[in-house]
């Protein structure tokens, strides 16, 4: 499998935020996207999975067969926001996402166990602490299989132990032939990851 970006530009509010972004990522590889606030890291992730239109250039995904014919289908997007309903139970939220995203992988309970939240799946998501919310959102990556994980500041709010646990989960995903693109200001513990440094903030 391979994700490629060729000379991609992104816009927000009609203004160019970045341009000329190119990379090729193969199965088992990770790319960290770094740069100052406002450089366009989140915008790039959203462009890669088709949540925002691309101003110029091309994004392609190949090798995913009928199940993952293009980047939109192949990408699991973990944004800044957790995208969970506060009034629904944690497991209920994960069940919703599993049905929505398809390609079921771990059960919601198993996924919560993997992030150390196996005992609180019955609680409303809104009751969880900031770090627990992030961990429950990370569990979303495990309930449905998608080969490309697009992660926006994935470890924000996590304690050291949870950071290490997540680094392990990312390592397993890469060993299984997955791909990861992660926007971050912090080291993620991804050994061998390449780095894409995005430029200066647009005036
Ligand atoms: N809806 C919008 N309309 C206009 N401009 C926007 C919109 N959303 C974001 N921007 C601008 O686009 C630029 C890039 O934002 P983006 O969130 O991609 O940056 P970032 O590199 O992820 O920043 P951070 O490190 O702070 O998360 C910023 O200057 C931001 O103000």
Automatic annotation (TrEMBL):
Gene Ontology MF terms in the entry: ATP binding
Highest taxon listed in the record's lineage: Bacteria
Alphabetized UniProt keyword annotations: ATP-binding, Cytochrome c-type biogenesis, Membrane, Nucleotide-binding, Translocase, Transport
Pfam families: ABC_tran
Domain ABC transporter: from-to ranges: 3-203
This protein's record includes keyword rRNA-binding: no
SUPFAM superfamilies in UniProt: P-loop containing nucleoside triphosphate hydrolases (SSF52540)
Name of the featured protein: Heme ABC exporter ATP-binding protein CcmA
Organism: Nitratireductor aquimarinus
